[in-house]
Fold Small ribosomal subunit protein eS4.
Amino acid sequence: MARGPKRHLKRLAAPHHWMLDKLGGVFAPRPRCGPHKLRESLPLILFLRNRLKYALTYREAKLICKQRLIKVDGKVRTDMRFPAGFMDVIRIDKTNETFRLLYDAKGRYATHRITGAEGNFKLCKVVKKAVGPKGVPFIVTHDARTIRYPDPHIKVNDTVIIDISTGKVTDYVKFDQGNLCMVTGGHNMGRVGIVGHREKHPGSFDIIHIKDIAGHSFATRLSNVFIIGKGTTALVSLPGPTKVLNGIICVHIPAVEGLNYVKKRIVEAICEGGNRSIPEIRLPVINMPVVEAHHKSQALIVVGWKKQSDYSLHPLVIGEPFRAEDIQIEELHNTGNFSSGVGIFGVNNGCDQFDDILSYGWLNEYDIRIKLGHSTTDGSNLSPVKETCDFKLLYILDHVTRHKIEELLSIIETRYKKLSFELANVDLQSQEAFELSRKGPLRQRILKAPMIYSIVLNSFNPPEFTLTLTSIGETETFFFDFVREIGLNLGIFMFNHSTFATCCGIKRRRAGPFDDRHSLLIKHLSVRNIMLNMARSHKLIDYYRKNVNSNVIQKMDEINIDEISENQLTEVLGDLQEAEVDENCIQMSFDREYTTINNFLVIFSKFFLKTECYSFRNFISIFLILIY
């Protein structure tokens, strides 16, 4: 039986944030015992070989460390397996570079370059506070530092600022509401936001609610929160763009194109705009050896040095910051390629809000175009025709009229309304059923079950007609079957003739509070428009979340999109004070003064411009007469 600590680590069992390729070998470098845990650290060999590309092999990384060129928190580290962790400062004096290990927007360690002045300090989270032997108070930080005689006001979960050269505490930041923090664990690792309220659960984990800069709120455990700034100002520079593209967006789905095409265009717009917004990286210049063969022994020797750009940091080598595989996008309503209209999509963590949105019971409004006379294999007019009928004969016999279609639709609507009461376990003859029906349609108890609340016949132009249908939990297949049943119920079996119906188009006009005014067109997809639409969608969802009724679906009033934009601008520019401006004067810069003009002259000038019957000389003469 083996004894002692483990000495090996399989590559497949290594932490995912190391980003090791699966086919690169069997084993991965196992970190030594140090100040950080194995799954929360990054060995120096991976930092030099996989991230900076300063070493190409295991042996080269070992030689670099043995030359005492690498310093971690001001101390030389010769072990290439030393575990560097969160907030550690790595300095390479030979290249005059300083790095700080921070999590990026995807929860992975980023090689964040910092200045030499910023590398003189680091932030540490207090994880323990106690009193040692002889009554000496001390605190323990997240990187295993023990600091004696700290400030009495420093508590657990606070952040202390430590001078790397001396190891002393220079300042501290309290764990309070309104301070900037970074999540260091859990599903939201790498997200930056403002600390909100704290939920205390005795005997369990305390939950902290955080709000990021995009206005989205999320919750995580107390142990995962690391304070990095006072108020909204960070004490350290953060790596790249933070994870702010999380939320719900509304995009118009074009006909025939389908969901996959729309999702692909959204991802392309995010990646293209995000990569364009990041400034171009200036490649550092390094010295490369010039190697030639010896004229006698043919051995390779270094004959000189040349300066060239370090292509290890080039985007073609390390990839673009925004990549399609890193962006998660899902749809709220899984319609097929035949449907079009308003579409709700979740981006990244916005997909987690779908369960709550479905529980609200938002009603969807559709326009369905139907054509009588033939039947297809799947119910749409794009598939092959399976059966046909003589529609003219049925129309002459007065069996397909507007009145009969409306009568059939009212019967279907009544049956669905009765079904909604049965699913809610409410007796139709009771007072409870009357009170619920008076308030509005009943809310679905079974999520994603199709239910129709209203059907209206909009236009009737035989053999085509259009329906406006309000439903919940519908699918494209449900609509095809619904249209087929309408056609069969309208027909008669006479002279071997019957009526068939085919769906020619499905357009979603409204999805809960979202309609055509809130949706983005494909040609308008950009990072700026997506983030603006995401902010508007967040305000809409918050507004309707406050008016949710557990039993019935209340009719939602329409909100003008201009009001949402005005509220958003008011929040940003609310601190600006408008100067008092006289209505009859003009104020401009450059110390110019303008006298007040008589109201009569203003009216007269407007009249002159409208009539166009006066010459310029007549206007000047009349103007002088009025003045004098």
